[in-house]
Amino acid sequence: MDQGIVGSIFTVIVFVSFIGVVWWAFSSRNKKKFDEAANLVFADEEKKNQKKISRSLELMSMFWTIWISVITLGLIIGCYFLLRWCLSNKTGVAEGESMGHEFDGIEELNNQLPRWWTIMFYMTIVWGFLYLALYPGLGAYEGILGWKSSNQNIQSLEESAQARIDAKEQGYLVEYDRELDFAAEKFDPIFEAYAQVPVEELAKDPEANKVGQRLFLQNCSQCHGSDARGQNGGFPNLTDNDWLYGGSGAKIVETLTLGRKAAMPAWLDAMGEDGIEEVVNYVLSLSGRDVDPQLAEAGKARFAACAACHGMDGKGNQALGAPNLTDNIWLYGGSHRAVTETLTYGRNGVMPSFKKTLGDDKIHVVAAYVYSLSND
User: Fold this and answer.
1) How many Å apart are CA 107 and CA 35, to the nearest integer?
2) What percent of the chain has pLDDT over 70?
3) Alpha helices in 198-267 (DSSP H)
4) CB 82 within 8 A of CB 10
5) I need a labelling partner for 5 at 20 to 30 A (CA). Which of 61, 125, 225, 277 fits?
């Protein structure tokens, strides 16, 4: 029998099983029970019949358990029979003999599947059954070990600690929480020790920087790049010692802990297109760019509106996060067009807070790593 035919038969068997389960689920009797469950769940609290709800929900759970179990176990059993079929010789040609096919000088022989391959296939089938017996994988069945990926029914972060204690007291094997406990026990003392060292001093510690780099890659590289050189669009380069809010250890910690929210207002309504063109020429002249001198001179007078944040000399203000306009380092691009867009439409930059994500001790280590990038 051709392997394609066998594959088609196997597909038909799975499809028929699928239709059978669907028919069972949506037969008039069962469908009525499911509808009753849905109606009861959304009925008024006073009219609910708790016993019926419980029974209906159990029925729904049983349906999905059967559904998943039939498909999962059916596929594993199907793989076993398919393997057995492939190991049988139904070609009418003795093993090791030619099949009568030749292409490009290569003759096809009637050889069985390699023994090592067959043994490994059997092992995967056995492993599949063992796994499904020990761990959850068949609908509502929890497995012999009662393993859970995490605690259930946790309504808030504040309840998580008590929920974990309750789960352990009930004897659950909550693997994810065990991993968290193990990590906390092993690594928290290390981070606590690092937190006692000033950022500027910790930045000289190679081992601390390795830890900080890993945390940076996990949490910061999406915006600032894996090399921390940033990118156009409002993601600053962290290696050039040009800081919007200050590059001291304390300021970097502050930025990571609280986040930043910057706003550059749009000036089109206040200045008009001609006024913006004049200011653009003046701003570009501050960093030594070639501009129209007459437009730049007119823009200098208009720049007084910008000086409230950037200063009269255009060197910025770290207290406000206003960038230095004289150093030719541009957060959103320094071309004539990019600066025009900034003045016309404004900019809104957001740096998220990592206090909840990392905590104070890990923020301290990341800050030391970032500090080291521009203070080698």
Assistant:
1) 63
2) 76
3) 199-202, 206-219, 221-224, 249-258
4) yes
5) 125
Q: What is the pTM of this model?
A: 0.58
Dist. CA 146–CA 299, nearest whole Å: 72
> 301 CB contacts (<8 Å, ≥6 apart)?
none
Average pLDDT of the residues in 93-107: 78
Q: Are strands 147-148 and 173-174 parallel, antiparallel or unpaired?
A: parallel
Report CA-CA distances (Å) from 160 to 174, 178, 359.
Answer: 13, 13, 17
**Tokens 């068949």 sit on residue:** 138
How far, CA to CA in Å, does 242 sit from each of 202, 287, 317, 330, 353?
21, 15, 12, 10, 21
HSE-CB at 56 with a 13 A cutoff on CA atoms is: 19
DSSP, collapsed to helix, strand or coil, labels residue 55 as helix
Compute the distance between CA of residue 43 and CA of residue 168 in angstroms, rounded to an integer. Answer: 36
pLDDT in tens, 330-363: 999 999 999 999 999 999 989 999 999 999 999 9
pLDDT in tens, 165-202: 565 555 554 566 677 778 888 889 999 999 999 999 99
Q: Which amino acid is at 279?
A: V
How many of the other CB atoms lie within 10 Å of CB of 156? 7
Instruction: Write the single-letter amino acid at 265.
Output: P
Structure tokens given for 218: 């996990």
User: CB–CB of 278/298 below 8 Å?
Assistant: yes
